[in-house]
Amino acid sequence: MDSLQALKDRLAPIVDVQRVARLLSWDLQTVMPPAGAQHRAEQLGTLQQLAHERLTDAETGRLLEAAEREVDGLDPDSDDVTLVRLVRRDYDKAVRVPSELRAEMARAAAEARPVWVRAKEASDFAAFLPALEHNVDLRLRYIECFEGVDEPYDILLDDFEPQTSTAEVRALFDELKGALVPLIAELRDGDTDDSFLTGSFPPDRQERLAKGVVDLFGMRPGSWRLDPTVHPFASGAGVDDVRITTSYDPATIKSLFSTMHEYGHGLYNHQLPRDLERLPTGGPCSLGIHESQSRLWENLVGRSVPFWRFFYPRVRETYPEQLGDVDLDRFLAAINKVKPSLIRIKADEVTYGMHVILRFELEQDIVNGRVALTDLPEAWNAKMSEYLGVEVPDDAHGVLQDTHWSGGMIGYFPTYLLGTVMSVQIWQKAAEDLPELEDAVGRGEFAPLRDWLGEHVHRLGRKFSPQETLRRATGSEIDAKPYLAYLESKYRAGVAA
Amino acid sequence: MDSLQALKDRLAPIVDVQRVARLLSWDLQTVMPPAGAQHRAEQLGTLQQLAHERLTDAETGRLLEAAEREVDGLDPDSDDVTLVRLVRRDYDKAVRVPSELRAEMARAAAEARPVWVRAKEASDFAAFLPALEHNVDLRLRYIECFEGVDEPYDILLDDFEPQTSTAEVRALFDELKGALVPLIAELRDGDTDDSFLTGSFPPDRQERLAKGVVDLFGMRPGSWRLDPTVHPFASGAGVDDVRITTSYDPATIKSLFSTMHEYGHGLYNHQLPRDLERLPTGGPCSLGIHESQSRLWENLVGRSVPFWRFFYPRVRETYPEQLGDVDLDRFLAAINKVKPSLIRIKADEVTYGMHVILRFELEQDIVNGRVALTDLPEAWNAKMSEYLGVEVPDDAHGVLQDTHWSGGMIGYFPTYLLGTVMSVQIWQKAAEDLPELEDAVGRGEFAPLRDWLGEHVHRLGRKFSPQETLRRATGSEIDAKPYLAYLESKYRAGVAA
Fold first, then answer.
1. ipTM for the complex?
2. What's the pTM?
3. Where in chain A are the domains?
4. Which residues of A lie closer than 8 Å to B, measured between beta carbons?
5. pLDDT in tens, B158-168
6. Cα–Cα separations (whole angstroms), residue B277 to A396, B39, B42, B79, B242
7. CATH fold of B168-493, please?
């Protein structure tokens, strides 16, 4: 197995460089002096270029062919065979894309980010348009590197959710849309009082509570940190260096939920297989699987009755002025209130999906040239009105709200809803395997859930496709029905302790 | 000039990677979750390996030869000729060292650091010894890659202070030693009261003051940050991303001086030539020149009468309990008190040099096999007694105090004293060119000094050798006499406003 070992040695630095790039991106969004943006763009471009050059080098191709011969006939599920299979996939994709284009995409993304931040602050889409055009143009050039696909969007989607076609996603989303639109119409005019969730929530107390949640859910001490940023995300440099971020809005309690969400991402990174750590198979499977983890902790744990029976007293004590005379049932009803709104990351569980479907549809229109970028705000606003019945007052609350397109990340959004759908399938399988799960959550004990996720999802790393990973974890293919049934039973019945 | 341009394009990613490595090292020492140390060691090793592979690649050699032909006959001081000359030097050195050894040196250094931190905390040299042995062994293997040098230590010194021989440094240091030992003996028993410099200095006030000093000395807004760490240092990712660190000891005022010191390093990084930014010539010249900048701001500005006439009221207001009844003259005398002590970074200006000379001598003994590493504490303590007349109570206050050897950085220490000597030569030349310099400092105006340093020192980057850089800035070779004359006139006369 000499060639296989040589291939692994050749790949390890690529994995390191990709992790370093993630750390630089964390730094950019949390602690970097703002003037450093231009350096950072160059540095991220260079790392992308070096990783890409090394992966697409003739020597990698030679070692890969030799390794394929070496592992021929071995157990197809083994670490070595899955590695060689994955590297073949990555290699065949990568060699089609010139290093210069890869580097330019990374640079353009890093350069566009501050432009987007300023444009969003000023709610000025026109100021963002040139950066968006440049990034979209690079994506179209990227698509041109490939041939023989059913539709161009498949290429972009594959970078975030591998081996998943636009057609499959469209079918799933159409099923969801058919059920969500009437459900939203039915629930939207509820008169649940959630006024106490807006008011004064001092950021220092929010931070203490957020760190308390991460401590409670659990990660090994000394292996994580939590920092404030504008747009929350999770990152890190390895299983023992997990970085999650959140955003403390002094007027709301939302950081609690965004922290639980990012904790789910962080735990996935934390429990990836240590023995595959410097191999491509040791990374996370896909953004959809990643999101299934964050949504599971945010919603299936973090908006559930058992969790709040345990945790509400602590939150109430933290904000006595706001919540002193709010009992658990009123709190539960408020945090689960269904109300169509403008901002995806603040959306409730029921309306959330339509925010994603809107973006998925617009992205296909962009890639297929069915919408001009200048007309994007108008197209956005029309769909918001149609799907959620809300009118967009300005672009900061509309088309400029998310950072993704500033980074050229087209094809990313659908993974949010794929993950949300899968989160329910994974939760239900965990609950089936662990009959005590709800009781444990109600006692504030999360080790059983952490361990189950570690064993059935996280430790698979990137060995298999997202759908194969889901099948191994749950025994099922991706399916809208459990998710829709969960929403209907939870929200039609009303939530109470 | 096609080959020259291709060479520049080939080198730019190396410069980027080196800057990224510096940023990772900053992260390691300021914000990284402690469990992340192993990942970080691998990542730093990989970056070192990638940069080294790219520099020593046959293609670089081919472009370098072609570029040498292209620039033949051009102005030897031009950006292009100095670049080609420098790259030839770097390349010829680098090709002698296998990439694996380079990577192993970086990994071993990163792995040793937490070992050193724990050993220092426990004052347990034996716990540090294996890591030290491994790092020293790698350094000896590194030396073996070279041939035809006068003495082995030259190889190590050249990595920190290029084109400077051990013999030259020894001659300079012997001259200093001859003058410092009697000067210290004469001044050591002064009865200056500095008791008020120990007591209660709340870290939040120290931090406010430290940031105030950086603001006052001046850097472009949004291009720097100041963070706490154990062992202060300056780092950064480019001229617009400067990171300085300091350490807030609640019992002393020392962070003020360490901040001024690190500001000097930071300003140098901040004013390096922007037009050479992604070229090897765009970096700092040497650690000696770097240290001349930090020592200039720490001592020539930061322990001077004019500066404190301006700044003392602010410090006194910050710590009224400690300094309320201490007048400027008493304060100036205290911060300039000569008293042999155990810790280099806390040493006064007069005794500082002997701390460095001790290390320089021990390092040569290590490299030449004249001292076994197990005997290092004993050898250290004997020299402390001989040169400074102080007895070392434990290894934490002796051989374990500095981080350098944990990172295998042998040959680094002498640059501290080289820089200190040069700082006086540079200051005196600045004062000659700027007759108003002392008055400006006394008014809290630092732009003239910043600009002078930028024009005469910083903008030269790494175009020339350290000694050539000094000659261009001051018109003189390195010389112990101005430094000794400065110490004698300042300290024999006593310091007063």
1. 0.91
2. 0.92
3. 2-148, 167-493
4. 12-13, 16-17, 19-20, 23-24, 27, 31-36, 38-40, 42-43, 46-47, 49-50, 54, 220-225, 237-243, 278
5. 999 999 999 99
6. 36, 29, 27, 12, 14
7. Neurolysin; domain 3 (1.10.1370)
